Amino acid sequence: QSDLRFVELLNDVRGGRPGAATLAALNSRLDPSFEPPDDENWIRLCTHNAQADAVNRRKMAQLPSRPKDFICEVEGNFPENSYPAEQKLSLKPGAQVMFIRNDSSQASEYYNGKLAVVESVEPELVVKDAEGRHIKVKKLSWENIRYELNPESKEIEAVVDGVFSQVPLRPAWAITIHKSQGLTFDKVLI
Questions:
Q1: How many angstroms separate the CA atoms of 4 and 173, rounded?
Q2: Beta strands at 174-176 and 188-189: parallel, antiparallel or unpaired
């Protein structure tokens, strides 16, 4: 960050002892009645998963079409508490989503944290990003890897125990502050 006043505000809050000037600056941005326009990609940062999930469910329910469910596929050993994405992801056209993984193809059309809006769910899943690009989204795979010592070479080797495959998206009208770490958003409600 190059805005020194903003950095000072963040440090005051991070330190847990914001002074009167910091609180006044933060409160000057408070608008309890503000609701973001539907045609803008605002994201709400929440403290708990339940809050973010409730916002996302409410916003998804407001969309007029029926949802399409994308079901994960699991091969081998991949514990549920380690799933990197939802087991069942329900999406509708108009849903605001966020990529939860980088595009490893040569196209590099998306990255972890990139926001987009679902354009279609059938016959294929297509999203439109803020730059107006249309991206076809397909299932990707994550590997559950364990490491073991090769008795012959005496070297540590990676062994794939299981594979989890799912569409690398999540609803993103709201996410937790924890999941937002390291990401950059243009329009945020906190």
A1: 29
A2: unpaired
- Token pair 């010592």 is at which residue? 149
Q: How far apart are CA 63 and CA 104, in angstroms?
A: 31
User: Is there a contact between 144 and 78 (Cβ–Cβ < 8 Å)?
Assistant: yes
Report pLDDT digits (tens) over 122-153.
999 999 998 999 999 999 999 999 999 999 99
What residues are paired with 127 via a beta bridge?
118, 135
DSSP state of 84: S
Helix (H, G, I), strand (E, B), or coil: what is residue 78? Answer: coil
Residue 142: phi and psi, rounded to 5, are -115, 140
Element (H, E) at 53: helix 49-62
pLDDT tens-digit series, residues 37-89: 877 788 999 999 999 999 999 999 999 999 999 999 999 999 999 999 999 99
